[in-house]
Amino acid sequence: MKIACVIPAHNEERFIGGVLRAIPPRVERVFVVDDASRDGTAAAVAAVGDPRVTLLRHEVNRGLGAAMATGYRAALATDAEIVVKLDGDGQMDPAEIERLVLPIEEGLADYCKGVRFRGRDVIRRMPPVRLAGNLGLSFLTKIATGYWDLLDPTNGFTAIGRPALRQLNLDRVARGFFFETDMLFHLYLAGAVAMDVAIPARYGEETSDLSPLRALITFPWWLLRVFVRRIVWRYFIIDFSAVSAFLIVGGALFGWGLVFGLWKWIQMAVFVGAATPTGTIMLAAVPLILGFQLLLQAVVLDIQNVPRIPLQRKQARHDERR
Fold first, then answer.
1. Dmax of the chain from CA atoms?
2. Tell me: the pLDDT tens digits for 35-52?
3. Does 234 fall in a domain?
4. 257 and 212, same structural domain?
């Protein structure tokens, strides 16, 4: 299958040349999107002299998501069947591209992400602060996007097949650093199969444009929005299933038990000064426990609803019927 590579670059003068020189011959087209760099990134790209490389430039810094949207559109305009995202800071080894795209070529997945958490030695080499942050963020991302079986959903080394990429409305995907997580949300609604591929990251002198404080403040809010949007679209607009009923009934019972129990406890402890009667406790505890069980069952069913049939296989069946 024909492979194209998209590299978003912002002030990557020191690293971009080495990244481009390491891209294997198997990749036919490379699109470097210079997102209004203030250094010599464009000159470093030109100095490589690789005829496969096309430089696309943003006059104003528009963010990672916007840079990727520009690159994806350029790749779709060619005959590329798989599009790989590769960062320009050298953390991702271009030699691993062929391993990354293999599940797509074999018809097992629509979207592949590198995973850094396979192997004890790999985890030991990762900076502790980055490891803790990535593990916590990965767990929250699983809940928000619905891809429960992805071990490292925040990894930026990705490959996507053409059928899945064509399903995305690139104008609606987040423009900033939240692009990769928001893309998972859109792929989930499209029914795309996502798969992990064990590829260790490389950490050197590069620095991230995203500060840990900014990620701590902004990402939980974004993830909450993605989670709510996914649940509403998947279980109340696209389809109404047992998960929908469990969420409604379980949420109502759990909310009632929690609010009623807290109110009665405050009322008896503060205003009356006496112990809460057993019957009142049961009126709060039974709905609370039952509601929690229903919500837990909804989570179990949600895990089972992860997409399993690749879009390219569905497209092939559709073509055969036609």
1. 82
2. 999 989 999 999 999 999
3. no
4. no
